[in-house]
Amino acid sequence: MLVVMSGDATQADAREIVALVESAGGEAFVSRGGNRTVVGLVGEAERLDAIGLHRMRGVERVARTSERYRLVSRVPGTDRSVVEVAGVPIGPGTVTLIAGPCAVETPEQTLEAARLARAAGAGLLRGGAYKPRTSPYAFQGLGERGLRILADVREETGLPVVTEVLSVCDVETVAGYADMLQIGTRNMQNFPLLQAVGEAGRPVLLKRGMHATVEEWLMAAEYIAQRGNLDIVLCERGIRTFETATRNTLDISAVPVVQRLSQLPVIVDPSHSAGRRDLVVPLSRAAVAAGADGVIADLHPRPEAALCDGPQALSGEDVPELARAIGDAARLMGRRTPGGLAGRGTPGDRRLVAV
Amino acid sequence: MLVVMSGDATQADAREIVALVESAGGEAFVSRGGNRTVVGLVGEAERLDAIGLHRMRGVERVARTSERYRLVSRVPGTDRSVVEVAGVPIGPGTVTLIAGPCAVETPEQTLEAARLARAAGAGLLRGGAYKPRTSPYAFQGLGERGLRILADVREETGLPVVTEVLSVCDVETVAGYADMLQIGTRNMQNFPLLQAVGEAGRPVLLKRGMHATVEEWLMAAEYIAQRGNLDIVLCERGIRTFETATRNTLDISAVPVVQRLSQLPVIVDPSHSAGRRDLVVPLSRAAVAAGADGVIADLHPRPEAALCDGPQALSGEDVPELARAIGDAARLMGRRTPGGLAGRGTPGDRRLVAV
Amino acid sequence: MLVVMSGDATQADAREIVALVESAGGEAFVSRGGNRTVVGLVGEAERLDAIGLHRMRGVERVARTSERYRLVSRVPGTDRSVVEVAGVPIGPGTVTLIAGPCAVETPEQTLEAARLARAAGAGLLRGGAYKPRTSPYAFQGLGERGLRILADVREETGLPVVTEVLSVCDVETVAGYADMLQIGTRNMQNFPLLQAVGEAGRPVLLKRGMHATVEEWLMAAEYIAQRGNLDIVLCERGIRTFETATRNTLDISAVPVVQRLSQLPVIVDPSHSAGRRDLVVPLSRAAVAAGADGVIADLHPRPEAALCDGPQALSGEDVPELARAIGDAARLMGRRTPGGLAGRGTPGDRRLVAV
Amino acid sequence: MLVVMSGDATQADAREIVALVESAGGEAFVSRGGNRTVVGLVGEAERLDAIGLHRMRGVERVARTSERYRLVSRVPGTDRSVVEVAGVPIGPGTVTLIAGPCAVETPEQTLEAARLARAAGAGLLRGGAYKPRTSPYAFQGLGERGLRILADVREETGLPVVTEVLSVCDVETVAGYADMLQIGTRNMQNFPLLQAVGEAGRPVLLKRGMHATVEEWLMAAEYIAQRGNLDIVLCERGIRTFETATRNTLDISAVPVVQRLSQLPVIVDPSHSAGRRDLVVPLSRAAVAAGADGVIADLHPRPEAALCDGPQALSGEDVPELARAIGDAARLMGRRTPGGLAGRGTPGDRRLVAV
């Protein structure tokens, strides 16, 4: 069962629900996001039905859930959530671009990439300071030095920062610098890490495991939510299949599938899905057209010299095309682009639609 | 090697090339489509280089191909092909909707479905008379009686007909009724069938095998082309992966990947990919936004009573949304919709973009 | 529902059951194998229950089946079937080796390969005259000339012949030469072909589709059985996955899974699974240890010169190791090796077990 | 490049090699296992070739490696490694059974399961105190209390303990109780955790990621080895595919593939591969016949009451069959069974081979 709290419910209201549920022998988990609070219940359904939860102060709805996840599920008839990252919204009314380098290499490279990101209409800057690499001999990221670079570039450009955290031990440090914590595909079922970011007080970007079903992905989100944090954005980044023409297979259907099952926003990563620069623009457009709430793309001032995933990074010359593709597709979907994407509806670019 | 013939080349020109190549100990395969003729060569590259092919009458270009397929490959710098089906174009300038019932059941059901298809803006009618079913106890299609129904409905509605052929023995019969022959996913590597439709004098719709790589799919097209027929449209219809939320996983990336490798048009089947009615519209929009040259969708007047694949069929009430989605997405891509899709650019439906 | 006929039931007995079922508004399909006859029923279960099938002459058992296949299912408490190919058994008491070249190339190569097969303990000779090739430019097999070579080599060596048929049009021709008809992985759901071999009067070797679930594979067998032929041997030959270290992924678990669901024998093809010569012996041993009723392996006198799949073929020098591996593993399982495998229990090779 | 040290080489010898490599501008990583020490080099191959490494004291061999991993690679012509866990060997001469409950639930259940394990011939006891569960509401293991139970049961039964560690924060605690640390499938690319167990001074059991290629799996082992620990045992536990008849698809071919590429022992987990009790015995036999160095199986005194993965656990009544299957298959392969498997070669059970 799931209790959706009303907009004006207080923390005390939620605590009273927890107390009532516990008195009936159940357990209750309060999860808060920027625009809603829900309480998930575990226990005997009949007993919990009988305690009059819908009469409690601050309760908007009490819903049964048939799915194994509950805090992150979508209660039929309710809107999907908006997650705000340092004021930048990700949710049903917008298409938010997150862009930046795969890895933070130098202050200059990061700043240049951030400027490209802003030119592309990005609302948020991505960039990795801790890099999960298949080989222990590959560049592993700059660590905390990279985080400081990201913070400086945020200062300079105004773009809030999304960056990956790999280890429970680093969560506090990364949360000290970043505006949003990213959980990578290889850590989607690193449960202690999910629990730690659930308690870190920052919105979380949860990438889908390359091997994970949609249900497992939502269960991973539930791990985060169960620790109190409902500000979670899901990111489809391709699954592993037999096809080798692309690095992974973008599961575009997962976008509408997830939106029917979960209240959480879902964005798409065309760069890691395809592993090929030439597919990033068409896949970004397809993602928005499928209903994605945003796109996250690799940008690098000099992809050929990138220390990580150069072949998939867009460069400066690709920026106008990316901006136009996302802007036009957002307009097709009747959505705003919070980062100020270049393609949006000024009279002059009316014709872009038909080009 | 591949010889692209000029628009005014004659059949005699092509025959002379074949003769020249054979005199040099090679083999040459002439493949003709509505808008181009190519000749594929097999033999020692150095010897073939030396015989002066580019000086022969009617030769536009002589190109080396590094891929294992050649007739269906895309020669850099040349346009992609347009395949015309009874006057309806499928190719780079258009978004063509093919719609209709999964299976032909009765004259009434087929006619009703065809009218829905036309209302949705379809340029072509799909419908199966020979159905490949997992179970021998399931409805296997009406056979030739189904073909006659399709022909009658074409008469009534003006929509040219696309229908599947399952067996070499039936190719001639099906080609006698249909405007376009469909090869289904389970027959993508049924090589004798590919060769037979390559000689049948009708455009071919070649669905991707659910297990096939892009390269294998293009090799299957090459089998058809090698028998002389270059009027082939590729159809991405989902591949088999571990994910069970959808029936198959739509490989949306295959659209731009194929367009870089092959001159052939490529369309998307959102119905068989997803196996779920509620995903057909978002996936159709995504397909067009990714660059697909068309969409093929299941429509049924009463999906709940369908003898085949009812859960994925759209019904009459879904038609306006499908028409609008494809029309708007086509306009986003600057393409025409040959079937006259409802959503296209009249001032009145400007607002549809933002709904 | 499924009716298992007793060993002494006559064709007239089966016909009477069909008549009785039809009189009750149902359908009945009689399927005969060398060691049993079954009748599969389609219709309303309650009505069929009421007509007293178990009292009919020649009826051993009447069983309900929950699976979608019925003729090929395993009735709990009954033995699995033995399929005899020109007197060579494949079934639960034996481990039968089928070996030979991937493709018939010349009389000499085929005869040499057959002698190697016999030396390896093979009970049957494999060899392709019609070859399904990914590329239309690759060697497509010798056709009927290849069949004649196989027949000559059978004469010379005494080994019955298993060979693939690709097209409905060739079934009669191939059945005129071969002792067993093979359906390849790409044709597992070529339903007209399945129906044709179901009527051809020869045992059938049905390879699993590289994309097929176990259930789909058994449904394909049901297509053959429904046309009257229950002499079907299933062959696991690897499925398609993301792993590229092997050509396909041998699904060894399918062996015991199928044996619980179906009465049909199941063998393993380690050559096409792995696509690597060095894995054939360990995978053959594993297959037998998992309970496989046989192994089918590629053998070629000169793999480096093979026109098809040379990298996976064993050569003469590998024969003793293959023979010993299969012979020893068969003994571990308490099974006979009908082809007379070299490794079997003479005192002298006792030590081979521990090498 | 890779330097294999001789058996009598000292730590000082290895340090001198590191110093020499560093003086040439390279990096060197010393990795030690119970039966060998290797030094992996990173740097310019030509420069490293020129410094005379083969003349250094304690050097047995200097080998070039073409693979991306080096410390865990197999130098052609050298034996595969033996990893000893509290005196119990896992390696090429033995078949070691590891058995026990999926999760430690109570002292009694764990002790009973350990006695079953010993009866089955196990050399090591498995049991999870920290459980990675798809759902945050599922039983998460007893934590350190579970570790104490395992230690008590080891005391009682003499079986060394293998147990999973989920988080960098727990490595020291778990290493304080366990004889071998297990890295689960979901953590195969949790790089900080791999590095931490690489420094923990205990042998490691590295399960293959359900989505991982063989190469990625060996790269994960390289992460552990690079931190100094070469006592790593690989465990194939099934990969994720489209087939749903089993929980995962056991990639039996990975056993011989890995043994050609890596010096590390490799064992098989039939319980998690199949997720079905009835497949554990045939898959165990197949694993040993394919060359596996051991088997790890779930055993539970009352599977129907298990808190985790009951459907795949063997119970007491399955123990004799498991013991016999592994014992007989080990004898087929000419290997010892260190735990004293019941089936082993006493004259009296000669007949077991043929049962």
How would you explain this protein's 3D organization?
The structure is a homotetramer of 355-residue chains. With 355 residues, the first copy, chain A, is of the alpha/beta class. Chain A has two domains: 2-63, Phospho-2-dehydro-3-deoxyheptonate aldolase, domain 1 (Alpha-Beta Plaits); 83-354, Aldolase class I (TIM Barrel, Alpha-Beta Barrel), CATH 3.20.20. Helices cover 31% and strands 17% of the residues of chain A. Chain A contains eleven helices and 14 strands. Chain A has helices at residues 11-23, 45-49, 107-119, 144-157, 171-177, 191-198, 214-226, 254-261, 270-274, 280-290, 319-332, and strands spanning 2-5, 27-33, 36-42, 59-63, 83-85, 88-90, 96-100, 124-126, 161-164, 180-183, 204-207, 232-236, 266-268, 294-298. In chain A, the strands form three sheets. An eight-stranded parallel sheet of chain A has the order 13-12-11-10-9-8-7-14. In chain A, strands 2-3-1-4 form a four-stranded antiparallel sheet, with helices on one face. Chain A has a two-stranded antiparallel sheet with strand order 5-6. In chain A, helix 7 (214-226) links the parallel strand 11 and strand 12 (232-236). The longest helix of chain A has 14 residues, at 144-157. The first copy, chain A, is globular. Chain A starts with a strand and ends in a 23-residue tail after the last helix. Mean pLDDT of chain A is 93; it is low at 342-355. The interface between A and B is large, with 42 and 42 residues. Chains A, B, C, D: This is 3-deoxy-7-phosphoheptulonate synthase. Chains A, B, C, D: Keywords: Transferase.
